[in-house]
Amino acid sequence: MAQTQSLPLFVQISEMLIRDISAGRLLDGERLPPERDMAGQLQISVGTLRKALADLTAKGLLERRQGSGNYIRQGSDTASVYALFRLELIAGGGLPTAQVLSVATMTKPDDLPAFGRSDVAHRIRRLRRLNGQAAALEEIWLDGSYTKALRVEDLSESLYLFYRRNLGLRVQRAEDRIGMGVCPDWGSGLLGADKESLGLVERVTWDQDGHSAEFSRTWFDTDKVRYVSRLR
Amino acid sequence: MAQTQSLPLFVQISEMLIRDISAGRLLDGERLPPERDMAGQLQISVGTLRKALADLTAKGLLERRQGSGNYIRQGSDTASVYALFRLELIAGGGLPTAQVLSVATMTKPDDLPAFGRSDVAHRIRRLRRLNGQAAALEEIWLDGSYTKALRVEDLSESLYLFYRRNLGLRVQRAEDRIGMGVCPDWGSGLLGADKESLGLVERVTWDQDGHSAEFSRTWFDTDKVRYVSRLR
DNA sequence: AGGAATTTGTGCGTATGTATC
DNA sequence: AGATACATACGCACAAATTCC
User: Domain A9-72, what architecture?
Assistant: First the structure.
């Protein structure tokens, strides 16, 4: 099992299992083979497998029952397994898409809280939709230490996928502050009927090394949309 | 290292370190001894110590740097280390206290979402304060499967401590839904000036076995208070 | 600049405890 | 009560990152 210059073995196993769940090869409620058997099939040690399974548990995809077995727990959304937070329609669900409005790089304005290790940051403004309907405005400040430049065409639908694949940045932890706020100038009109007051979530995220990576604000109409955060 | 009928060793170590941080015996930025030395001092194996340290990392209290060392990262709030979520004054901080208004046990009303394994639930209503000032109303529905009866005098300041110590219930995961709502009848007047609309967080929590344990609603004045959730 | 020493990360194997079936 | 299966704990070897000289 030599595996230099690739991801750690337990990460490979964990991601393989996540793919199996996403693809429907492992179904909700299904029981996995005993750890020793499974480790034997995969040609890895029990300890390594256990580390991969602990990862799935942390993501809420697995339930481990001592004396019983390991059971797949497929969350409501398999697509956004990596997502710690999501927007959803009050009615429930909604297909999420995101449209990048602008990207800019500048020295951090004074009204931002302290985060990251650089004086500069990339500002990403997005309009997020659910089932095609405008649902929220988002302004993300990514610390300048991860990349020098950022272009609109770099950004795929999933920011976190881009962060991970292109910048080597993995978001490990986040803190949300929930309150109300007024619609920013640049977003006026984009959310439909103008409201005096919108739901506002301010978020700071941290990377795999414990450094704060992003500060972001998300404005949304609380009559149409809910903001869901998954904690552990 | 026999340790029957007490908490696992790695949990004991983790909690000891958290107490050390809270008490100021370990300061922000401080570097811990090498793992092997530390394990030797504590008379435990390196693997066990590593599990405790992983726990601190997950809580955002430690930064581990390969080839360098383990560094204390003291969050803004040392007191509520166990908390996944907290209320704070917009100005920042505030000493949290909670006053139980009522406890009742009944079959679950229809307007609750599906959670837990029992048909009955305990309803706990609390008034939460910050620096003595009324900050939020809270209605918690605890699934009936954890205990038959619940009395006001059972409940300590920290519900989660009570859950763990008396009910064997450890909250492992939670999901918050953020929106707006109107003040419930039973709480009118308690939050001071009547508002048309309050911040509302609906929360479902899961126990160590992956069963949903609680459903709760928290109402708060978004002009005075912010709701903070810590994700991982 | 570069190599050695230090320190954490990964992976393996094993023994024993404890919950479930 | 016995078998099964996960949980905890120990120890070792080597890899990778950092630091120091």
Answer: Orthogonal Bundle (1.10)
